[in-house]
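FAQ
Q: What does a multi-component entry look like?
A: The components come first, one per line:
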Amino acid sequence: MITLSAYVIVAIVLFGIGTIGVLISRNLIILFMSVELMLNAANLTLIAFSRAMNVLDGHVFVFLVLTIAAAEAAVGLAMVITLFRNRETINIDRYDLLKW
Amino acid sequence: MNLDTLIFIISAVVAVFGGTMMIAQRNPVLSVMYLILSLVAQAVLYVQLGALFLGAILIIVYSGAILVLFLFVIMLLNLRGTEDLGHGSQPISRFTKFVLSILFVFELIAVVKTGFIRSESPIGMMTTVAEDFGSVKAVATLLFTKYVYPFELAGILLLAAIVGAVVMTRDSQRGDSLRIGSAPDSQAPDIEQETGGEQ
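Then the predicted structure of the entire assembly, as tokens:
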């Protein structure tokens, strides 16, 4: 039988993959998608706990997180387009105007 | 091994595989495809946990809308994965970051295994819950009664995101009055006029 910790461990592994992507990726788009993967790992944990505790509140939280992910994707991709228009690159190492 | 466990193992392996391939690709379009694969596998896990409504929402909204938005942006910027992403001088090497992330994962697993979660009770399709657990009606009842204020705030957040995305992507050479750094309050009527004119 599948235990609660099995689901939580899958979520942790997905979160770790997202962390690796955010840390080592130089492509701005892939970095952004890694953040989305981390959000989804957190959602999986919420749903697993919601099932284990037999309450539906976790489902509402996941619903709100999905809303926020949609808003974040819209604003973030708008920023990506503006950055690309100004710098002609999506390499995050080249966005270094504020670096000292 | 029963069917429930088999479905869980297949979905978990596909989800982790999709995530791994996503960060390993150079071509962003392939990267989006692997993320969609991972999300569909996660939707199977949602359904297995009884979240029928959210599993459908994950496929429709996430794979169907948000990742298609990513694809639109990738094609708009004409990214083919052949850009020079260079090897800039980084203060910490990529190998160190990789090892630190793996350590982080093992630390979290150790926390889960050693006492944060006491209950090793089996969950999944076989255990009994309420008849309408995770259905649209049950989630919506909770959403419109107990969590109605967060729901309204999410609506305001979406409105702010729409306005923000429109303001940021406007061409500052063409837009006469919209410039970065100007007060947003004075710009709001301008945006409404322009969208009204386009319709």
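Q: Is there any commentary attached?
A: Sometimes. For this entry: The CA atoms of residues 53 and 63 of chain B lie 15 Å apart.
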